[in-house]
Amino acid sequence: MKLAIFDFDKTITSKDSLIDFIYHVAGPLKLLKGVLFLAPSLILFTLGFIESDKIKEIVLSYFFKNWEQVKFTSAVSHYSKEYLPAIIRKSALERLHWHQNQSHQIVIVSASIDSYLIDWCRKINAHLLATAVEFKEGKLTGKLATPNCKGQEKIRRLQQHYDLKEFEYIYAYGDSHSDLVLKRIANEFHYRSFH
Q1: Is 100 exposed, middle or buried (0-12, 13-18, 19+ CB in 10 A)?
Q2: Is 89 exposed, middle or buried (0-12, 13-18, 19+ CB in 10 A)?
Q3: Is the dihedral of CA 180, 156, 150, 107 positive or negative?
Q4: What's the pLDDT score for residue 90?
Q5: Residue 46 has what pLDDT?
Q6: 110-111-115-118 Cα dihedral, nearest 10 degrees
Q7: Domain locations in the chain as residue ranges
Q8: Which residues does the chain have with pLDDT short of 70?
Q9: Pick from 84, 158, 78: which is nearest to 120 by CA?
């Protein structure tokens, strides 16, 4: 059995899916206001003073805190069906289909919010390991329910869900510095390329 591990944002997609999600769900005006309001935090994150987990919670809180779970679930379902397919790279789909045709196990390991990836991953018959948001008393808190699935956390999640020694060969695909950790467990690592 062979395993194919894919990062999602900017590996499978042409842009950041969380920003695209906010754009379509909250609207372009609120997205612009949010970027301006959150600019100090975003700058500190860029400079390395705020961790990725924390900046994601700051962004989620600004746009979605106290949203009813039913409303959020409806929004992610609509986004997944209507808008997510538009940012999927054709070359990524071709590579995913190649792995499917080889009967390889496919897993998407992503820092993206799992809510809007679940349906898409189900359609391509891929397992999903991603970042979950927290709900309490039926409302989104703005906090993460799991650690942000980035960097070393990707390895931890994979080892938690798979016995990697059972795979005769492992492919991995990523686009960012934080994806380079996948090289340690992959027989074949592709960086910003599928070939």
Answers
A1: middle
A2: middle
A3: positive
A4: 97
A5: 94
A6: 0
A7: 2-191
A8: none
A9: 84
List beta partners, residue 4. 106, 171
The predicted pLDDT at position 140 comes to: 98
For the record, the structure tokens of 167 come out as 């795979």
| Per-residue model confidence (pLDDT) at position 126 | 97
| Res 28: pLDDT | 95
With tokens 């999903």, the residue in question is: 128
pTM for the full model? 0.94
Q: Report residue 50 as tokens.
A: 């705020």
Among all chains, which residue has been given the structure tokens 């959150």? 38
Per DSSP, 170 falls in state E
Tokens of 71: 């409303």
Instruction: Tell me the residue ranges of DSSP E strands in 63-187.
Output: 105-113, 127-131, 133-136, 139-144, 169-174
Among the four given CATH numbers 1.10.10.10, 3.40.50.1000, 3.40.50.150, 3.40.800.10, the one describing domain 2-191: 3.40.50.1000
The reported pLDDT for the residue numbered 162 is: 97
Q: Which two tokens stand for residue 154?
A: 């990707």
Tokens of 131: 């970042």
Q: Which two tokens stand for residue 104?
A: 């390889």
